[in-house]
Amino acid sequence: MSNPGEADLTPITSMRQLAEYFMAGSKPRTAWRIGTEHEKFGFRRSDYAPPAYENDGIRAVLERHIARGWQAIEDQGKPIGAARDGANLSLEPGGQFELSGAPLFDLHQAQAELDAHLAEARAIGDELGIGWAPLGFQPLAAQADMPWMPKGRYAIMKRYMPLKGRLGLDMMLRTCTVQVNLDFASEADMVEKFRVSMALQPVATALFANSPFSDGKPNGFQSARANVWTDTDPDRTGIPSVVFEDGFGFERYVDWLLDVPMYFVFRNGVFHDVAGASFRDFMAGRLRGFEGQTATIGDFADHVTTAFTEVRLKRYLEMRGADAGNPAMLMALPALWTGLLYDDAALAAASALVQRNACCDFQSLRTNVPRLGLDAPWCSGTVRDLARDMVGIAQGGLKARGLGEEKYLAPLQAIAAGGPTQASYWLERYNSVWNGDVRRVFDEAAI
Is-contact 74 68, C-beta < 8 A? Predict the structure, then answer.
């Protein structure tokens, strides 16, 4: 989840104005960039416990980054993030440490950014006795044992989440993901990319599955993180059918988004709890506690960040369906979607792949994949067959870019061809050399 940004105080006067907010993200191909985001669990090397905010914990991690040249981002006087050279460090609710990378020209630059970030995080962690494990779900600590970070919006979500689903607090505290942000050229280009990536997101979930443990034992899932999202908040998650309806575009997306209940209004550095309220009422000056006040574009931009669909539209498209994983997999995720969406022939092939099946088929796949992964049934075979096609199309798309980026797909090619997912690999280790000790995953997954 992002750090609070600078508010745009432009008053909202029409629905069309909100559609134009998204339209402003359209860019010519020469300006398309790749922005990677990835999270990891901190753990105390002494006992594998999650570090608190204070007491040489996550706050100290941020402060040592700031001492190395990062600019502090604060919430009520406490550091909750940092910024440098177009990149941001931020904290998830349970202290998961996130890099939101700068918009970069190619995957080689993304690899260099990842290497530099991991080296810095590792050096600072070593000073504090903290290790970093990029896994999809916290493998050991119970929900009650997770710390809470001091970000205003998290207190609001902590209260509201249990009203909407059984697993919302687990989503906040015990999950980590890897994401990539990609651009679009126009409304039509956005629609095609949105539909392709939304439909195929469950396949990415299966390929990147990396959360087979929770509470110190196997949990029966390939991706417990993905399962959590099936019971978090139906108002703002999943694969909305509207994306696949005739006439879908910026205005239809705005119309859908305005029916997502609000979380907060941010004013003068304070998050005000309005969870469950209507943004339409806010626009009309009827929001309780803010009667007569005009909602702004900045308020709408904040609201956009509270939609947690498998792909999220901001002024770019954000792929959200994958568990965090080892460094090679952290690079494979942006490689997969860049290959699929940034080459015209690859995008056409991926679109044809999606159009062979109805939207509801992919929505059902999202339900089956968390437990079954690549073995989930698909047509006359399994999801692995679909993954093989998807990775093959992405490889062609990267080759067409002519930058030598296809090498980053190597881990996915091995998995699609029949190799183990990260989750399957860890389960094999658990049942053999670990002798049933889940704590060993921290040492072996540490970056």
Answer: no
Residue 203, both tokens: 């396949």
Query: Which amino acid is residue 152, in one-letter code?
Result: G
* Token pair for 102: 């700068």
Average pLDDT score over the chain: 96
63-69 own/partner pairs: CB under 8 Å, 24+ apart: 64/124, 64/127, 64/128, 65/89, 65/120, 65/124, 68/120, 68/124
**Residue 95 — left, alpha, or beta (φ > 0 → left; ψ -120 to 50 → alpha)?**
left
User: What are the C-alpha distances in Å from 197 to residues 21, 30, 190, 390, 417?
Assistant: 21, 21, 10, 11, 21
The model carries a pTM of 0.97
DSSP string, 9-63: -PBP--HHHHHHHHHTT---GGG--EEEEEEEEEEETTT-PPP-SSSSSHHHHHH
What does the pLDDT average to over 86-106?
98
At a CB cut-off of 8 Å and minimum separation 6, what does 373 contact?
206, 209, 222, 223, 383, 421, 423, 424
Q: Please give the pLDDT value at position 3.
A: 47
Query: What is the C-alpha separation between 296 and 267, in angstroms, rounded?
Result: 11
Locate tokens 């980590």: which residue?
Answer: 176
Judged by DSSP in three states, 100 sits in: strand
Instruction: Give per-residue pLDDT as tens, 344-383.
Output: 999 999 999 999 888 789 999 999 999 999 999 999 899 9
* Residue 438, both tokens: 């889940």
For 263-314, the pLDDT digits (tens) are 999 998 899 999 999 999 999 999 999 999 989 999 999 999 999 999 999 9
Residue type, 145: D
Per-residue pLDDT at 5 exceeds 50? no
CA torsion, ordered 211, 215, 219, 221, to nearest 10 deg: -20
Q: Tell me how far apart the alpha carbons of residues 217 and 227 are, in angstroms, rounded to a whole number.
A: 16
Name residues whose C-beta falls within 8 Å of residue 30's C-beta, 6 or more positions apart in sequence.
Answer: none
118 φ/ψ angles, rounded to the nearest 5 degrees: -65, -40
What percent of the chain is predicted at pLDDT more than 70? 99
In the numeric block, the tokens 């059918």 are attached to 241
First and final C-alpha spacing in the chain:
22
